[in-house]
Design goal:
The complex is a heterodimer of chains A (284) and B (195). Chain A has 284 residues and is α+β, with helices and mostly antiparallel strands. Helix content of chain A is 34%, strand content 23%. A six-stranded antiparallel barrel of chain A has the order 1-2-5-4-3-12. In chain A, helix 2 packs antiparallel against helix 3. Chain B has eight helices and no strands. The chains are: A alpha+beta (284), B mainly alpha (195).
């Protein structure tokens, strides 16, 4: 009974101050687990490379011995070269992203995924030692990935944009030219492949294949980042919003390298108050 | 003198058993933390739950509850869900299985299959219930994930329980000893020896 109550209390506290605040238990667990996850991630890469080589050997088994050996050798080299090229391209794209933008970024590698089957967070190998803070946006060259929710010295946990609790202000088309404003978020029944865009006025014109960009109004993502592409629209009416499904630009199934934008949203201006409002507030 | 030997022997046996449980639990938590990166479907297997079910079936209430809480909290802390939800669900699951094991004979290895399935179902249901109540809906389809988890945990858990049984259980160690002695005895009275 005591243990159940203790768990319930921890859960209630966690649910109460879930957004924006760090949890000590999470930070410590992450700090201890991240070196293991890092090592495991590297080992996994090496093992899959080994099995890939084995597979390559098997696929050439029908050919004669000399050719088989030669082909396997070439394929192994080609595989390594392809992997290096792909990695190079991804890193170059991230670098380009960094150069194009005024916002500094920290490149990071995905070292683990959520151990619980119910959520889709990822863990990256960069933490507060690199200047990463909670709520900083995480992106790839393809588009936004999510935001940082926990930071330990050597690792950070990232909530993907496909999570129901995640969200971002977005616009269909170019910011400043389109009025199709809304917010994107994940939906459990859509899985990690698609996200939905809500609150877009039914009077706005939205078509399949239109691009969706961030608006910066959420106070997390800077404006002008790619979110994805519209793949399905159920047209709304004057009183009903469009139902829009978006294919995210980032490939969530194959996330390997990401960049954390060291972005601090501009402080929101507080409207000036009249002397009468000030007096009312003092009275209260 | 003999009393002290017996006492120290029983203490070392008990602590050895606890050490084994701690090792098995640590391995199960590590597997849970690392395997999803290797291959996503492997995350449907709830390794810590298998250990919790095993200890609950041994009718060791305190150990089962503590292990349930600890395993749940550690996995919660590394996941994106609420910290404490997994601890609560595993603790309650451990208690329910312990309660059933003290009233019904669940010694038969075949009975472990429905117990594991029920444990997985109960654990998932409580976990999702608390997340929904506190405004944290899971990011994946409920029924599909629950079914996959049930199947994966039951199939792999049944095999894992045999393995844990062979490694940890004193009774199975005794059984192995008896089997060895019996084999030796048979060998010494066998037809070749008589000749």
């Amino acid at each position: 009974m005591t243990l159940l109550v203790a768990n319930l209390v921890i859960m209630a506290v966690d649910a109460k101050d879930a957004d924006g605040r760090q949890k000590v238990l999470r930070i410590w667990t992450q700090a201890f687990a991240s070196p293991l996850q890092n090592a495991s991630s590297k080992a996994t890469g090496a093992t899959s490379g080994f099995f890939q080589q084995m597979w390559n050997f098997r696929s050439t088994a029908t050919e004669n011995e000399q050719l088989k050996e030669r082909l396997a050798q070439v394929e192994t080299e080609l595989h390594i070269a392809r992997q290096a090229t792909a990695e190079n391209e991804r890193l170059r794209a991230l670098l380009l992203l960094n150069e194009k933008s005024d916002i500094k970024s920290v490149p990071a590698r995905v070292i683990a995924r959520d151990p619980s089957v119910w959520f889709n967070t990822i863990t990256i190998n960069r933490g507060s030692s690199w200047g990463i803070q909670v709520n900083m946006p995480v992106v790839t060259a393809g588009g936004i990935v999510g935001r940082v929710i926990t930071v330990s010295p050597w690792a950070s946990q990232v909530m993907l944009i496909t999570d129901e609790k995640a969200g971002a202000g977005a616009v269909v088309g170019q910011l400043g030219q389109s009025g199709a404003l809304g917010s994107v978020r994940g939906r459990a029944d859509l899985g990690v492949g698609l996200i939905e865009m809500r609150y877009v006025s039914g009077l706005e014109k939205v078509e399949v294949n239109d691009y969706v960009m961030t608006t910066g109004q959420d106070g997390i993502y800077p404006p002008g980042l790619n979110v994805g592409r519209v793949v399905e629209v159920k047209n709304g009416t004057a009183t009903q919003a469009h139902q829009i499904l978006i294919q995210p630009g980032a490939q969530f199934d194959h996330l390997e390298e990401v960049a954390v934008l060291l972005y601090h949203p501009p402080p929101r201006s507080v409207p000036e108050q009249t002397p009468q409002q000030n007096a009312d507030r003092t009275r209260r | 003198m003999m009393y002290w030997q017996l006492a120290s022997g029983s203490i070392s046996n008990a602590s050895m058993s606890k050490l084994k449980i701690a090792v098995v639990l640590s391995v199960s938590i590590l597997l849970q933390l690392l395997l999803r990166e290797v291959w996503r479907p492997l995350s449907y297997i709830d390794f810590p739950l298998v250990v919790v079910v095993y200890i609950a079936l041994q009718r060791d209430a305190w150990q089962a509850l503590l292990v349930g809480t600890l395993a749940g909290l550690i996995v919660d802390a590394a996941s994106g869900g609420l910290v404490g939800a997994g601890g609560f669900s595993k603790t309650l699951t451990a208690y329910v299985i312990y309660f059933a094991a003290t009233r019904v004979n669940l010694e038969n290895p075949l009975l472990r299959i429905p117990v594991l399935a029920a444990g997985s179902l109960l654990d998932s249901a409580i976990y999702v219930f608390w997340h929904r109540v506190l405004g944290y809906p899971p990011a994946v389809p409920l029924m599909q994930t629950m079914s996959y988890k049930l199947i994966a945990t039951t199939v792999v858990g049944t095999l894992a329980l045999y393995l844990i049984d062979a490694l940890v259980a004193e009774r199975s160690a005794q059984r192995r000893q008896f089997a060895t002695r019996r084999r030796v005895a048979r060998r010494s009275t066998g037809p070749l020896r008589r000749r």
